[in-house]
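Comment thread on ticket #2218

A.B. wrote:
> Attaching the input chain for the structure job we discussed in standup.
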Amino acid sequence: MGGFEARLYNCPVMPTVFRERGFRFFFYSDEGSPLEPVHIHVVRELAEAKFWLESTMRVAYNRGYDARTMRELQRLVEANRSRIVRAWNEHFV
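C.D. wrote:
> Ran it. Output below, let me know if you need it in another format.
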């Protein structure tokens, strides 16, 4: 694991919600002031995406994933939506 990736995997200000298929699903402890709406970041190697989880899930940004991988990530985020929201609420509320 490279230095950049090692920092992403071990940084205490970026709580990991879960890992699956080599992806890390996390949020930052400082998500803005005022706090941004519920969302999740997904990183693997040097690629990252962010998904909003309000009423309907949508992509906030994609930096480096191809279309096939983004479809896979959308399925994983949707399948774990309640887990993500619960972790967010436990951390921020």
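A.B. wrote:
> Thanks. Noting for the ticket: Residues 1-8 have pLDDT under 50 and may be disordered.
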